[in-house]
Amino acid sequence: MADTTNTTTVHPAEVVRYDDPVIITERVAVAAFIAGYTDPTRRSYGTDLRIFAGWCHDHGINLFGVKRPHLETFARSMEQQGRMPSTIGRRLSTLSS
Q: What are phi and psi of 67, to 5 degrees?
């Protein structure tokens, strides 16, 4: 008889506080940055910045404290996820704008 026991891993939920001044400042800075672009560019930049900000958050990096080694590590992580070189280049280009 086959073992039909299901195991579930439970991970503690991390609470993101949207009233945190650092998060508010980061969100305002991102909104101000993308506000001057047309809609297609704004959406693309917004997606790229949201992905990078999430990566920074996951790695305990303040968005305003990002250095070149962080960008290189971000690029390597995208490579490991199987992202296309063009996607990686575009996201890094967004971050350099």
A: -120, 170
Q: Are 63 and 53 in contact (CB under 8 A)?
A: yes
The tens digit of pLDDT for each residue in 42-67 reads 999 989 999 999 999 899 998 889 99
CB 20 within 8 A of CB 63: no
3 state SS of 78: helix
Which burial class, exposed, middle or buried, applies to 46 when counting CB atoms under 10 A from its CB (0-12, 13-18, 19+)? middle
Q: Beta-carbon neighbour count of residue 56 at 10 Å?
A: 18
pLDDT at 82 over 90: yes
